[in-house]
Specification:
With about 575 residues, the chain is an alpha+beta fold. It is about 25% helix and about 25% strand. Strand 9 and strand 10 form a beta hairpin.
Amino acid sequence: MRTLKGALLAGAMMLGAGAASAENGEKPQYGGALEIGTVYVTLSALSWDPADFNWKLNHDTGLFYEQLFAGDLSKSKKAGGPFNFIPDAWLATDAIRGELVEKWEWKQDPLRVEMKVRKGVMFPEKPGVMKKRELTAEDIVFTYNRLEKSPKKLLAYFDHVDKVEAADSHTVVFHMKHYFAEWDYRFGWGYYSAIHPKEVADAGASNWKNVNGTGPYMLSEFVSGNSNVYVKNPDYWDKEKIGNTEYKLPFVDKITYRTIKDEATFVTALRTGKLDMLEAIRWQNVDSLKKSAPRLQWNRWLNQSGTFMAMRVDVDGPFKDIRVRRALNYAVNKQEIVKEYYNGNAELFAYPQHPDYVGYFEPLETQPASVQELFKYDPAKAKKLLAEAGFPKGFTTKVQVCSCSPDHMDLLPLVAGYLEQVGVKLEIQPLEYGAFLSAMTSRTMTPAYFMNNGHTNPTTTIRKSFTTGQQWNPSGWSDPEYDKKMDVVYREPDEAKRQKLLREMTTEILDKAPYIWLPTPYVYSAWWPWVKNYAGELRAGAVRPGPIYARIWVDQELKKKMGY
């Protein structure tokens, strides 16, 4: 069985990120520093250990931990290609390059993927942890086995893999139990794919002082709630072709991620040049920034996370009744939220599939009437359904929200106001992010839970949110028949067939309304003109910006001329 995806990937040999367009013929510069307010500017690093299976790990470790595959940035829109590299964890098949492996191929009898590990990739010396040495296939085997045995491993995450072995020092073989549509994402470039050496695990992978990888930077300092500081790895292997010249990466000497919890403070930091880049800016701040800092460069993108209020169906209460869940959807004026709250800077319908997922996304106007009506304001129908469900006077319920999100802290009271008009009262409990996340993962959260969730990719967005026992399933949705459909999707090698199945599954879950489905806002990124070889790209893998930042250079003379 040589699948379409396997055939497309087989034999791929890509060195570096390939060619990129030089900006107006400008020559890259080495040196300088970047101060970045990332997409997660309000959130400090949550973990440094890949075996913790923490969703944010690649964001914080992706400058020093590399993976088998990464996004092929030579195919970015900036370089004349078709991809914006905005999605939080989706790479189209032809947007993938080899990173730590340089070629790979599906083979039969037994079903397996053979990968050739890139030669000459080095772990730099880390005093007290490890000597400088070359990456080998054994490092990949070690990483896989450590993740597979982790008590924090996501349910069934590697169940399609039989075993992983090193055929020689630069050949690693993944033996598969069966075809699996996300094989490359799960361990190749996904959230939990960071290749790390045994020496780091032995020293203590959760301690930031011990981390060490093959990437373009090394972590030199971490202050929780303040900053992550990365310095250039002199032993880094990759190059970038610009024009007809290849340049050794990375360009910038030091990169700092700033953690700033207050929105006014991080917006001011950008305006005054204390931040070179700010990746996530709410529309409310854009006009004032454009007036006060007119030289800023901009990119606008539709949020890659869906916003909703989950209604728990895994505990006794009103939300077990579909009439109640549908009623609460009717009670919220979603069109008004788009028009008045977001000032038009949102899409009424863009979750759980994202419009970027061509072939997987089906627009609201072609959905069944029963789905379309969930997005229409009808408080009279809401009251009627609540009465039919045994709640003629409504009810009171508790809802948790993360204080880390300025948008949610503003939006939830508005949603609560709509619900109160039909007799449903929300008792709002704001939590810091650590406590908020812990409430969900430990299943101790309130009956209602207000959050956004990354789309991830067209398959995972359904699996992680609506199949039985998944960590990121805040409603506790569980339907054995739905789970079976998900299994069929994963084993289907034909992408067109998978697309059809996923469109049907998406419609089904929309109709059953485990969430109050809310609009998806547009977000803005901005950067100063001295930030070069950049056009607003956010991820080159699952929440991993590292390869993007490694290719940026700073025009230090321009920065000085502009008075910064």
